[in-house]
Amino acid sequence: MSVRGLLLAAVLALLLAPPTAASERHPTLAELEHEVMCPTCHQLLELSDAPIADRIRAFIQARIEAGDTKSEIKQRLVSEFGEAVLAAPPTRGFELLAWLLPILGLAGSGLVIALLAWRWTRLKPEAAKPHLVNGFSELDPKLARRLDEELALLDR
Amino acid sequence: MSAARTTAEARVARHPSSGKVRAALQTVGLSLVALLLVILAMRLVSDSSGRRLDKALAAGKSPAAPDFSLPRLNGDGRLRLSSLRGRTVVLNFWASWCVPCKQEAPLLQAATRRFGSASLVVVGVDAQDFRSDARRFIARYGLTYPVVHDNGASTATHYNVTGFPETWFIDRSGHLVGEHVKGPLTRRQLAENLAIALKR
């Protein structure tokens, strides 16, 4: 990586890291409503008005006021409602596929495109070269026939 | 046809490895698709096991009640359903925020008092609920029958529970009998289903 690339990465890390850390230490109800599901209606908490959704909102607010971090609140919710309460699937078991499949899909498509591009670039010089017969370029038979006919008309 | 073959042969001659690469990619791709299909099929079969119970009951059969072991809310340790073999079980799924569950709880507690725990056990399965709320509910309605907490509602899914409250009846041999009651139990539904379950 070039020096400019390293600098860019460092600036990005500096810009992104503090908000992430702050959000982990001092989460807001709005943030967590976007990351937690209503267990009965299977919608994001922010979209649900089910009784349990109201109860979970009250629980989150109470835990925020008690000083819990975002991870701690999520962990408490998982211990009550299971992994399905989290909007993002967990990174183990069957749910791991939800993370792996898009990555595998992207990697697979990238590989196929790379292979096709490699083959295409290797074929191109030969394909672009005109096919010569006795030092002359070979014409399309249709075009050759038409040319012969028109030359014959001129010879008359 | 022969021209096409010549072109293909020429291409293979130019790229002897391309056929192998393509075959390897096809094999990997097909294996991945097959693996995914197998996993999805297994998942579907496990999800539909609850519906299977309802279908069997509707066809007049008595399927075995899926066993579970869940932590107790009004007691220590865990409760395993199969440990209640030899007694009739009323399996009631509920949650503290569910309004009809509040109407039903006194009826289930009355049944526990009337029959005694030697012949009949009511088992409450609290799901999609905070344990602290469930414990408050137990105290408020004076429930003395065992109540367990179904974290993740996986047991409720195995019993095809789609709302609260819902109730299943299990005979002494551990088979589902009578009716899968969706909604709050009435006195008549409780009496009729208990008559079926206790007779077996």
Describe, in plain words, how this protein is organized in 3D.
The complex is a heterodimer of chains A (156) and B (200). With 156 residues, chain A is mainly alpha-helical. Chain A has two domains: 24-88, Cytochrome C biogenesis protein (Helicase, Ruva Protein, domain 3, Orthogonal Bundle), CATH 1.10.8; 97-155, no CATH class. Helices cover 67% and strands 3% of the residues of chain A. Chain A has six helices and two strands. In chain A, strands 1-2 form a two-stranded antiparallel sheet. The model of chain A has no long low-confidence stretch (mean pLDDT 83). With 200 residues, chain B is an alpha/beta fold. Chain B folds into two domains: 2-46; 63-199, Glutaredoxin. Chain B is 49% helix and 18% strand. Chain B has helices spanning 2-14, 18-47, 49-58, 99-115, 131-140, 154-158, 187-199, and strands at 69-71, 78-80, 88-94, 120-127, 147-150, 166-170, 176-182. In chain B, the strands form two sheets. A five-stranded mixed β-sheet of chain B has the order 5-4-3-6-7. A two-stranded antiparallel ribbon of chain B has the order 1-2. The longest helix of chain B has 30 residues, at 18-47. Chain B starts with a helix and ends with a helix. Classes of the chains: A mainly alpha (156), B alpha/beta (200). At the A-B interface, α3, α4 and α5 of A face α2 of B.
